[in-house]
Design a protein that fits this description.
361 residues, five-stranded antiparallel sheet, alpha+beta, 26% helix, five-stranded mixed sheet
C-alpha cells in the first residue's frame, strides 16, 4: 500500500475499506484520499469528475455496506474539523464526529439534538439520511447545508426547505451523485439548561417524566446513550453487536390499502387479538416497526448460524461477529427480507448505502 501527498491530502493506493466502516467489511479501493480541508475535498471531487473516475464518499463509515470486491475508483474520506457556536447557532464541518457534536452542544446548554447522542458517523452524513432517533430528527433544527454541487461545479448553500427532508430521506439521498456536504448549520434552543420537550415514550419513561416534559440536557443525553448501549447501538470495538450499521432496515410506511392488507396478514398469522405497531405518517399513510416485523417473522435476537447474525441486543441490527464477509451479511439480510415478505406481505428496505452490491431478493 503506497502513500503519497497530493494538494496536502493523504493518498493511499490499494487500501482496504473494511477498517473505515463500522461493519469492518469491504474490499480494497484503487485510491483512498483523506482530505482535512473543505478546499481539499472540493479539489479531489473536481479531479475525479474531470477524469470520469468513480467516486465514493466516506465519513464515519457507519452507513456503508461495501462489497467484498471493493471499489474501482477513488474513495474520499472526509476528515474536516470544526465546531463553531455563536449564541444558539451551530456550524459543523462535515468530517466532525457526530457524537462529539452532540456532546459539545449539551455542554453549551443548547437543546435540539441531545437525543441524537451516540449515533455513529460524521456530521456531514446527518442531513443525507435525515438522521433521527428518540423523537428527534436533524431536520427539526437544521437551517442550512453548505455543499459542493458537482453538476453546477460550485459551492452552494441549501436551506432546510431546499433539502426536501422526509423520513430517513433528503434531496442528497435522492440524488447521491450531485452534492458533497461540506458544512451543516443548526439553530438550537437555549432552554436554561433543559432539553427540548421529550417526544419519545421510552426516553420519558426512563427519565421518570411524561412525554412533552423537559429534563436537564445532560440527563437526556446520558439516558439516550444508555438506551442505545443496551441495544448495541453505541460503537464498542470489543462488542460485536456494535459491528453493524445500526438499524439495517427503515420502518415501513404503508398507504391505507397496504396497511389494511398488512393487518389482515397479522391476524392470520398471529391471531385476532394482535395489533401491529402503527404510527401516523401523513395523510393516508401509517408507519409500522421493522424490528417488530423481523421478530414476529421468526428472526429473533442472535439469529443466524454463521459469522453474520442478528444482534443479540436488537433485531433491527445485522452484525459481523468477526470473520464475516459482505456476502455473509447480504445472505442474512436477504433471508430476513424474504421471510418478512412471506409472513406479512411487507418488503423491508435497507437503510445503509450499498456499494458494489445489491440487496434485491
Amino acid at each position: 500500500m503506497a502513500a503519497r501527498r497530493l494538494w496536502g491530502v493523504q493518498v493511499l493506493h490499494d487500501a482496504s475499506l473494511a477498517p473505515l466502516t463500522t461493519f469492518r467489511l469491504g474490499g480494497p479501493v484503487d485510491r483512498l484520499v483523506t482530505a482535512a480541508e473543505d478546499a481539499e475535498v472540493v479539489e479531489v471531487v473536481r479531479e475525479a469528475d474531470a477524469s470520469g473516475t468513480p467516486l465514493l464518499l466516506i465519513g464515519g463509515g457507519s452507513n456503508l455496506v461495501v462489497g467484498d470486491k471493493g471499489f474501482a475508483g477513488t474513495a474520499l474520506r472526509i476528515a474536516t474539523r470544526g465546531i463553531e457556536l455563536d449564541g444558539n447557532r451551530l456550524e459543523v464541518a462535515a468530517g466532525e464526529v457526530w457524537s462529539d457534536v452532540v456532546a459539545r452542544t449539551v455542554e453549551a446548554g443548547l437543546a435540539g439534538i441531545e437525543c441524537l447522542a451516540g449515533i455513529p458517523g460524521s456530521a456531514g452524513a446527518t442531513p443525507v439520511q435525515n438522521v433521527g432517533a428518540y423523537g428527534q430528527e436533524v431536520s427539526s433544527t437544521l437551517t442550512e447545508v453548505i455543499a459542493y454541487d458537482r453538476r453546477a461545479g460550485e459551492t452552494v448553500t441549501l436551506t432546510n426547505g431546499e433539502c426536501a427532508f422526509s423520513y430517513r430521506h433528503s434531496r442528497f439521498k435522492a440524488d447521491p451523485e450531485r452534492y458533497v456536504v461540506l458544512r451543516v448549520r443548526f439553530a438550537l434552543e437555549d432552554a436554561g439548561g433543559l432539553s427540548a420537550p421529550l417526544k419519545y415514550a421510552e426516553t420519558a419513561r426512563a427519565l421518570g417524566v411524561g412525554p412533552g416534559e423537559r429534563v436537564p440536557l445532560a440527563d437526556a443525553r446520558e439516558t439516550v446513550l444508555k438506551l442505545r448501549a443496551g441495544k448495541g447501538m453505541v460503537l464498542d470495538p470489543e462488542d460485536h453487536d456494535t459491528w453493524s450499521a445500526g438499524s439495517f432496515f427503515t420502518n415501513p410506511i404503508l398507504d391505507d390499502e397496504a396497511f389494511a392488507a398488512f393487518r389482515s396478514r397479522v391476524r392470520e398469522r398471529l391471531g385476532d387479538g394482535v395489533e401491529p405497531p402503527a404510527y401516523p405518517a401523513g395523510e393516508g399513510r401509517t408507519k409500522t416497526s421493522a424490528a417488530w416485523l423481523i421478530d414476529r417473522a421468526g428472526f429473533t435476537k442472535g439469529y443466524g448460524g454463521g459469522p453474520a447474525r442478528i444482534s443479540t441486543k436488537h433485531t433491527l441490527a445485522l452484525t459481523n461477529r468477526g470473520g464475516a464477509t459482505t456476502e455473509d451479511l447480504l445472505a442474512l439480510a436477504r433471508e430476513v427480507v424474504a421471510g418478512v415478505r412471506e409472513a406479512f406481505g411487507v418488503t423491508l428496505v435497507n437503510e445503509p448505502v450499498m456499494v458494489g452490491v445489491d440487496l434485491q431478493v
